[in-house]
Design brief:
It is a single chain. The protein is an alpha/beta fold. The chain has two domains: about 210 residues, Rossmann fold (3-Layer(aba) Sandwich); about 150 residues, P-loop containing nucleotide triphosphate hydrolases (Rossmann fold, 3-Layer(aba) Sandwich). Helix content is about 40%, strand content about 15%. The chain has a seven-stranded parallel sheet with strand order 3-4-2-5-6-1-7, sandwiched between helices. Strands 10-11-9-12-13-8-14 form a seven-stranded parallel sheet, sandwiched between helices. Strand 3, helix 5 and strand 4 form a beta-alpha-beta unit. The radius of gyration is 21 Å and the shape is globular.
Length: about 375
């Protein structure tokens, strides 16, 4: 099915063509018409399913339909709440790409912590049509009278489960007190649990529900391998893998920021260039690493789970779990960085002796047994 039956208009269809989208993904086909009706919506969809466009495209359409002028006092009409800085920047960039051909310009602004608040306050002077923000920085802007939510018409809670996992429940309750009662609220989450259901009760009014892939399954064209590696041999084996394989880009996941820096240092000692990405890095260093990786100037990025949902690289060939994730759900989110949008990919797990039982738990949850190969000490 082409995008035209979704009634988003020729300008957004041109944007889809420019981005190489020929037809909507299931989450987009099911979500976009419902968003346009103005009703509240709960969407459960896995990582990599195309949900960012599913809420941005109709949101931009509704903002343009509302007219070119911003509201008195310059409160934003649209707000997207996200859990991490990286995801805020990613959503902002995708919104800007989709908005290029609109009949009149929309001011789109991201706001997140880890950097000085002053430039963001200046950027919001004169208002914004759409703000993409993390909860803590958003509340800081509101408390400093740099931003008002009084005229908000559309609220999106993106990665709602991750917002709660990262401890933003209190900030979200504070935010709720700032919001106008009359608004449209859209909530997107990869998983559902009691905490997410609580958010639904607080923020949404009689929402419609969209479910895309009820179980946490990965792309059918994703190859999954497990190498049984003595813990002390993981580093040498990773270097061997990266040297012998021809993957154009590789994302390596580790358990901590210290481990990420250590892996990068040892790769560098072997003449393999890599950068690390984790919560202890400065915002400028994190932005630079992501920019290099997304542009293809960096082949290997070593990251922690903290920012796993903020990494979206088109055509990423391989994800390596240097350390197994804490839960099967985290395995799905990590591995979902590759094999996206119908493209093939490979997910490799390096499994130490103490991790084999945990690997079995992950396999049981995703419903598959991975190909196994032993690695000699």
């Amino acid at each position: 099915m082409p995008f035209s039956p979704l009634l988003l208009g020729p300008e957004l269809e041109r944007a889809f063509q420019a981005l190489g989208y020929t037809q909507p993904f299931p989450v987009q086909a099911q979500t976009i018409p419902r968003v346009l009706t103005g009703q509240d919506l709960v969407v459960q969809a896995p990582t990599g399913s195309g949900k960012t466009v599913a809420f941005l495209a109709p949101l931009l359409h509704l903002l343009v339909k509302g007219g070119p002028g911003r509201l008195p006092g310059n409160p934003p009409r649209g707000l997207v709440l996200v859990p991490t800085r990286e995801l805020a920047a990613q959503v902002r960039d995708r919104a800007a790409e989709l908005a290029k051909h609109l009949p009149h310009p929309l001011k789109i602004q991201a706001a997140f912590g880890g950097v000085s608040v002053n430039p963001q306050m200046l950027a919001l002077r004169g208002g914004a049509d759409l703000v993409i923000a993390t909860p803590g920085r958003l509340l800081e802007l509101v408390r400093n009278n740099a931003l008002s939510l009084a005229g908000l018409q559309h609220l999106v809670l993106d990665e709602a489960d991750k917002l709660l996992e990262l401890g933003f429940r209190d900030e979200m309750k504070d935010l709720l007190r700032q919001l106008p009662a009359r608004r449209q609220t859209l909530m997107f989450s990869a998983t559902m649990n009691a905490a997410v259901e609580e958010v639904i009760q607080l923020f949404l009014k009689v929402p419609q529900h969209v479910l895309v892939e009820a179980s946490p399954e990965l792309a059918v064209d994703l190859e999954e391998r497990a190498y049984l590696v003595p813990q002390e041999q993981k580093g040498p084996f990773l270097r061997e893998l990266l040297a012998r394989e021809t993957w154009p880009q590789v994302l390596v996941f580790v358990a901590s920021g210290r481990r990420a820096d250590n892996v990068v240092r040892k790769l560098g000692n072997s003449g393999i260039r890599a950068l690390s990405l984790h919560g202890d890095k400065s915002m400028s260093a994190r932005t630079d690493a992501l920019d290099q990786f997304r542009s293809g100037r960096l082949r290997i990025l070593v990251a922690t789970d903290l920012i796993s949902r903020g990494i979206d690289v088109s055509g990423l060939a391989c994800v390596i779990h240097y350390d197994l994730p804490r839960s099967p759900k985290d395995y799905v989110h990590r591995s979902g960085r590759t094999g996206r949008a119908g493209l093939g990919g490979v997910a490799i797990s390096l499994v130490g002796p103490a991790e084999e039982a945990h690997l079995a738990v992950i396999e049981k949850k995703v419903g598959r047994r991975f190909g196994r190969e032993g690695v000699k000490a």
